[in-house]
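WARN retry 2 of 3 for item q-0093 after timeout on previous attempt; input resubmitted unchanged.
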Amino acid sequence: MKILAIIPARMASSRFPGKPLKKINGKEMIKIIYQNVDKNKKLKDTIIATCDNEIKLFCIKNNMKYIMTSKKHVRASDRTAEAVIKYEKFNKTKIDLVVMIQGDEPMVDQKMIDMSIEPFKKNKKIKVVNLISKIFNENILNDKNCIKVVKKKDNNALYFSRSPIPFKKLGKNFYGYKQVCIIPFERNFLFKYLKMMETNLEISESVDMMRVLQNGYDVKLVEIKKETFPVDTISDLKKVSKVMK
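OK item q-0093 returned
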């Protein structure tokens, strides 16, 4: 199985402009993510997908593979898909699985990549997987930048939201689950997804996976035990810097 990792990254984040090149303990976040992902030997390649010349120049300087994409993309999945098309054309090959790793997940590691890939080996009907982890902090539950997930008994997603769901705690100091933005797509399904119209809940929640759910497809959820924190704000950057010391 040919597996390609794509890290979509752009400088014009509405919540934290320029964050891919912000440093965590002396190293740029995008470099940390790239190096952590690229260590995984199951991947055919690791590519940064960007529309910014500043990130391009940083990639060249640091021997990191990149693909330039359109500035028009709003969703990370759209940027990822364009990078896949360009990669396949340049390398005269076709990918089987595309692992999208958001450019604000500096705590990603090889095991997380492995866990996200594993369901596809066991069940060929699976089209997309999303990692999740437990929420143990009420502040995180109420943080609109944290995407919460409710799952069904079969470990497929029921709903994604930036609102605090579920309403009450599920157990002692357990507030439910949050999305971890390591999302592998079956290659053909990624392009099928892009042909679907944006849905009202996708727009309302600003969560790509709602388009999948509203069109009647499953998102298989895989829980990781490691507690990870994305970087959406300057305060997140400070917190992650302390955790990763």
